[in-house]
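Field reference: sequence -> structure
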Amino acid sequence: MTVIDVHAHVFPRLGRADGRVLADGGEPWLRVHGDGTGMMMSGDREYRPVEEGLWDPARRLADMDAAGVDVQAVSSTPLMFGYAAEPSRAADWCDLVNDRILAFCADAPDRLLPLCQVPLQDPALACEVATRAAAAGHRGVHIGNHVGDRNLDDPGIVDFLAHCARIGLPVLAHPWDMLGAGRMRGHMLPWLSGMPAETQLSILGLMLSGAFERIPASLRLCFCHGGGSLAFTLGRADNAWHRRDIVRADSPRPPSEYTDRFFVDSAVFDPRALRLLVEVMSADRVMLGTDYPFPLGEKEPGATIRACPGLDDAGRAKLLGGNADAFFAPAAVPAAEAAVDTAVDAATAGSAS
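Structure field:
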């Protein structure tokens, strides 16, 4: 059985001079101490202490071997998104980050799957960067779950997701820049409470806005952190859809009928929670995710899956690697969809000029 971790982060060795590609103050960048530790930096501000698995592929592969992980999908650390920057500058930054991620994964191309990032604040430009990255060898794209006050159901971001579907590029959506930060002071509450709320908000937004009706069904989309609070509250959303016309105004189907349009990772850390998640999503829609190498991640990759009650051997095999193998498999883009995408890109280029 191949064990594939779909949720693992990287911060390539980018110094402060590299950070100035994105911002004059040089942010973000990585300060490496030479003793196996480092610090993620935002200009002069220390953001988070980190260890060498975040930037050293040899250490990462050794950790994977020790944990029994065969393959990782490698995505940037959300601090690196750069969504607040001017779009063309952010595009240059994304190209730099994407090249470094490719170089990082080149040490073990059969075990490290590179995911690119894009300047999502400009969806048309994000499409260009994603297409370029896919041609260079990236196996998917990693995005934040919102850009400022624009959620994933924003028309421009929906266009970007449709573009990813047309070019066969899987999408990994990660919560970040959590809402309600002013009320979540201390105790890592933005991570403990904000992240699940952000993820649920993103998924419900796509469901209730009708966005899933406009995005090709071929899109391979995965939400990190187990889909946040969604599995526990989906019944509440369905009840509201059936009882209130303002809830169902833009969605022809109740929320629970869209669970076949996306995947979630297994990072819920409790076998009982995972059992509910599998019951809601099905064993075909959940994939191993550890949040490596951060301290809130799963320290024994797959332990929650292996301990999940009611999950048989076939189901465990799907969650541990089978679903991810299919999710990241190179996709043949239908000729009709490729033709549509060419036309869309041409129209976008014409309007830009």
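Note: The first helix runs from residue 16 to 19.
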